[in-house]
Amino acid sequence: RLDLYSCSYLTSLPNELVNLSSLIRLDLNGCSFLTSLPNKLANISSLKRLNLNGYLSLTSLPNELPNLYSLIEFDLSGCSSLIRLPNELKNLSSLKRLDMRSCSSLTSLPNELANLSSLRILKLSY
């Protein structure tokens, strides 16, 4: 588990983060000044929980992110600059919980979300 909760002045993550091959949980809650995620974050195939709550500068998700096949919880709440979700989110076949509360810049959801057969909890609100 890597918990960087409220590291509010953190502006980037090292690309070497992807070498944590046994990482199960990554918590970036409150890291409001992060400008990007490592491109190869999806290489952490063991990742089950990803918390990006309050990641204010996030406008889109990395294209590789939907390759996190083991991901069961994904928290995007408070990502108020997030404009769109990739259609490839349908690849998150193990996803059970998706939280997108207060993603106030999202104008639509991909139809492919309906293909998330394991999804049990979907939280949406402005």
From TrEMBL:
It comes from the Eukaryota. PANTHER family: LEUCINE-RICH REPEAT (LRR) FAMILY PROTEIN-RELATED (PTHR45752:SF195), LEUCINE-RICH REPEAT-CONTAINING (PTHR45752). This is Disease resistance protein. It comes from Physcomitrium patens. The lineage of its organism: Eukaryota, Viridiplantae, Streptophyta, Embryophyta, Bryophyta.
